[in-house]
Design brief:
Helix content: over 70%
Radius of gyration: 22 Å
Strand content: under 5%
Structural class: mainly alpha
Number of strands: 0
């Protein structure tokens, strides 16, 4: 791959747009590989910054589509800093991405405004992680307002998923603020919405329901253990059904369900079950299951 990048860099220097596009794509692909597969964040950042510099120059010459590519690359850089637990640098890049996006909103397409909503949603999630609940709620409301205006007419299942994800984000904000009854109500609303989608999509959203049930069970573990047990039982059943669809994510969901089930058994002073569920949370299932 280094040889390929060297070749693409040489071609891009000639100034042809096609070659510059190919270089930008290759840089971002390699940055993803180093961030997510190799966990070599410094190399990933170096490659991503090269792509950002390239798109910055290209967007000055031609606003579309290079401003959007510049925006996406900055978001990806922000995500890398999040993986490194450097929230201040993540926020800086996400905010810069948002500022870059705003000028192209003169082209009033649903896609452009969906990206704007995405930025506000990312900022809300980041502020939630930083326990800045006031800012998290402000960004959440900005994202939700855009989604609701975008999807008033001709709403598709994809758009409904965006709105459900906003429901879950609000639940997380309220849970962190200690408003557990509000959080639980919104998690339950999200689960109900996913179930409605399942009726027309061959149970495509089973895994999302399982993940949301885990979130709901976490709030019930200590105060409503019977409800938590029921929620975790349902989550485990749905996650198992999803192993053939998305093995990795289903396995992660199962691990969390079993970990919560272990804690629940510990609270019930059932040490044997607690130990068994803990071991199950650590076991990697065979990939052919």
């Amino acid at each position: 791959m280094p040889k390929l990048l060297a070749k693409l860099r040489k071609k891009a220097k000639k100034g042809k747009e096609k070659n510059q596009i190919h270089l930008g794509m290759a840089l971002n692909i390699m940055a993803n590989f180093y961030a997510y597969d190799k966990k070599d964040f410094n190399t990933s950042i170096s490659l991503r910054e090269e792509a950002i510099g390239l798109y910055r120059v290209m967007s000055k010459k031609k606003k579309y589509p290079f401003t959007l590519l510049h925006y996406k690359s900055l978001n990806s850089l922000g995500r890398t800093y999040q993986l490194m637990n450097k929230s201040a640098l993540a926020f800086k890049n996400y905010l810069e991405a948002l500022d870059i996006l705003k000028p192209i909103l003169e082209k009033k397409t649903m896609k452009n405004y969906a990206y704007l909503a995405l930025s506000y949603r990312i900022l809300s999630q980041l502020k939630l992680e930083d326990k800045d609940f006031k800012s998290a709620k402000i960004y959440y409301k900005q994202a939700l307002d855009i989604y609701q205006r975008l999807f008033t007419r001709n709403i598709s299942n994809l758009h409904r998923v965006y709105l459900i994800e906003m429901e879950k984000l609000f639940a997380k904000i309220e849970a962190k603020r200690g408003e557990l009854s509000t959080a639980k109500r919104h998690y339950k609303k999200a689960i109900h919405s996913y179930k409605k989608l399942n009726q027309s999509t061959h149970l495509k959203y089973n895994l999302e329901i399982a993940k949301t049930l885990n979130d709901l069970a976490l709030l019930d573990l200590e105060n409503k253990p019977i409800e938590a047990g029921i929620e975790l039982h349902q989550a485990i059943a749905l996650a198992k059904k999803s192993l053939k669809i998305d093995y990795r994510l289903a396995q992660q969901t199962l691990a969390k369900s079993y970990a919560y089930r272990s804690y629940l058994a510990y609270l019930e002073e059932d040490r044997e079950s607690a130990s068994r569920f803990y071991r199950m949370s650590r076991v990697r299932l065979p990939s052919n299951q």
